[in-house]
């Protein structure tokens, strides 16, 4: 699975938008 697919299936549901925004630049 690519990071985008994985994020939508698992991480996106567990992380809040605030945490997601913090991880976005870090994962890129």
UniProtKB/TrEMBL annotation:
<feature type="domain" description="KRAB">
    <location>
        <begin position="6"/>
        <end position="28"/>
    </location>
</feature>
<dbReference type="InterPro" id="IPR001909">
    <property type="entry name" value="KRAB"/>
</dbReference>
<dbReference type="InterPro" id="IPR036051">
    <property type="entry name" value="KRAB_dom_sf"/>
</dbReference>
<protein>
    <recommendedName>
        <fullName>KRAB domain-containing protein</fullName>
    </recommendedName>
</protein>
<dbReference type="GO" id="GO:0006355">
    <property type="term" value="P:regulation of DNA-templated transcription"/>
</dbReference>
<dbReference type="Pfam" id="PF01352">
    <property type="entry name" value="KRAB"/>
</dbReference>
């Amino acid at each position: 699975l690519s990071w985008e697919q994985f994020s939508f299936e698992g991480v996106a549901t567990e992380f809040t938008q605030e945490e997601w925004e913090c991880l976005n630049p870090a994962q890129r």
